[in-house]
Amino acid sequence: MPRYEFRCECGDFAATYTMNAVPPSADCPHCGGTARRVYSAPHLGRTGSSEFGLIDRAERSAHEPEVVSGAVPGRRRRPGTPITTNPLHAKLPPP
């Protein structure tokens, strides 16, 4: 539910209303006077800093990919080519 900010003579306060029921003015909870609605920046997300860091790294990697050093994760390195002792394989061309 959206939060709307109101300004009274005694200060500012926020209240939540549905989008179709927001009034142009509201009663101040501090002094009881009439407070007019003010326009402010919207609060669009509740994402924490770790999520924002992940989003930033993903966007940055599209233009500046990170350099990976070492083996690819999840794949095991195999030792060199196995040596066969079959005499028929000796007639084959080398790879």
Task: Briefly summarize what is shown.
This protein has 95 residues and is α+β, with helices and mostly antiparallel strands. The chain is built from one helix and four strands; from the N terminus they run E-E-E-E-H. The chain has a four-stranded antiparallel β-sheet with strand order 2-1-4-3, with no helix packed on it.
Could you characterize the architecture of this molecule?
This protein has a domain at 1-61: Single Sheet (Rubrerythrin, domain 2). The chain contains one helix and four strands; from the N terminus they run E-E-E-E-H. It is of the alpha+beta class. Helix content is 16%, strand content 21%. The longest helix has 15 residues, at 49-63.
List the main descriptive attributes of the protein structure presented here:
alpha+beta, Rubrerythrin, domain 2, four-stranded antiparallel beta sheet, 95 residues
